[in-house]
């Protein structure tokens, strides 16, 4: 079992391997994390783990607490995640490699990272200035019939794109833009579909590529059917993914 300890960045969203993650880092605990990552030599990866929040708050409260309006908000690396932070997170996360960490004049950071590898959370440590986690690397097995499933998913995804973009709009992507490697297809489609966080998390933690693709095929058919029956859906707005605010 290969394990590693990395800084932990909880978000109200799911990161998939191969996908780009822009971050606007302004909270002190995450600023401390970026300052630590900047100590890594330029020729080495600046890695941290991104985990989706199951129960808690991405940004710690900055106003007096509720129901007591005079209570001060909790501060520190685990603020917003309770006394046992690991219970607030999903068990499967994604390692991110920060290609760019740019500090602004006000001390906040602009970060651009890319997901690399799926990992399982084994433990979370809140004793430092930011959360760290012991992580077990998860293999990406292809499973049965992954290649054929990937072809079916790509066909269904193109139909989904056309419906989402609208009959008078251009497709969001052309066939030349789409990959054909099954695991890459599965992650791209999982990230691109308009799904809630629990569903995206389910796709991230699928036992193998084929299982993820089968799930996506069902979701694509269902979502395309829904969009077809809702011609007034503001699809252009749905296709915009906002930058995470940390």
Automatic annotation (TrEMBL):
TM region(s), chain numbering? none
Domain Lon N-terminal per the UniProt entry, residue ranges: 6-224
Question: What is the superkingdom listed in this entry's lineage?
Answer: Bacteria
Q: Which Pfam families match?
A: LON_substr_bdg
Q: List the InterPro entries hit by this protein, alphabetically.
A: Lon_prtase_N, Lon_prtase_N_sf, PUA-like_sf
Signal peptide positions on this chain: none
Xref: PANTHER family: ATP-DEPENDENT PROTEASE LA (LON) DOMAIN PROTEIN
- This protein's name: LON peptidase substrate-binding domain-containing protein
């Amino acid at each position: 079992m290969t394990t590693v300890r990395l800084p932990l960045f909880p978000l109200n969203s799911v990161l998939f391997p191969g996908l780009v993650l822009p971050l606007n880092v302004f909270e002190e605990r995450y600023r401390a994390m970026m300052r630590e990552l900047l100590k890594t030599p330029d020729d080495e990866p600046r890695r941290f783990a991104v985990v989706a929040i199951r129960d808690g708050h991405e940004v710690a409260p900055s106003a007096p607490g509720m129901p007591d309006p005079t209570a001060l908000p909790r501060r520190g690396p685990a603020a917003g995640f309770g006394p046992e932070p690991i219970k607030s997170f999903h068990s499967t996360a994604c390692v991110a490699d920060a290609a760019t960490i740019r500090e602004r004049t006000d001390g906040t950071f602009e970060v651009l990272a890319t997901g690399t590898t799926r990992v399982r959370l084994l433990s979370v440590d809140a004793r430092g200035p930011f959360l760290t986690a012991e992580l077990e690397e998860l293999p990406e097995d292809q499973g049965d019939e992954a290649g054929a499933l990937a072809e079916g998913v790509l066909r269904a995804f193109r139909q989904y794109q056309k419906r989402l973009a609208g009959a008078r709009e251009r497709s969001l992507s052309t066939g030349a833009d789409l990959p054909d490697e099954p695991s890459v297809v599965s992650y791209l489609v999982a990230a691109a579909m308009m799904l809630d966080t629990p569903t995206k998390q389910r796709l991230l933690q699928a036992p193998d590529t084929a299982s993820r693709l089968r799930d996506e095929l069902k979701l694509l058919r269902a979502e395309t059917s829904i969009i077809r029956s809702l011609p007034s859906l503001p699809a252009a707005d749905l296709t915009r993914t906002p930058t995470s605010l940390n």
